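Human: If only I could read backbone structure tokens as easily as an amino acid sequence. Underneath my words sits a plain record pairing an amino acid chain with its backbone structure tokens. Take your time, and here it is.
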Amino acid sequence: WSDAKAVCLADGAHLPIVDDATEAANGLIGDWIGITDVAMEGSWRTVFGDAAAYLPWASGEPGIDMTENCGRLDDVTKLFEAKGCGELRDFSCECEIGEKLRMLSGLPGR
């Protein structure tokens, strides 16, 4: 997750922040998303430090495992899961360009 975040930042982008079900369902590719509770367990924040407003967790998520601090979007269910930040997963980056959103595909990253 941290490597994926760094790759996105190097391109002037960020890990995707899913704001609603429509965004989750339409065109978001990749596992890692821009939420984490690494700073305070149970307090899910975006990569910008804001409280994550949209948190459609899959059943049993986020679990009580304090080592699963990074968010991923399941490509099939479009629900969130908490995973270990060091896991190797696919990711996409997003950035704002005026009113348009540009999606960039990334290689698997931690």
Remarks:
- The chain has two helices and six strands.
- The first strand starts at residue 32 and ends at 36.
- The chain has a mean pLDDT of 87.
- Helices lie at 2-10, 21-25.
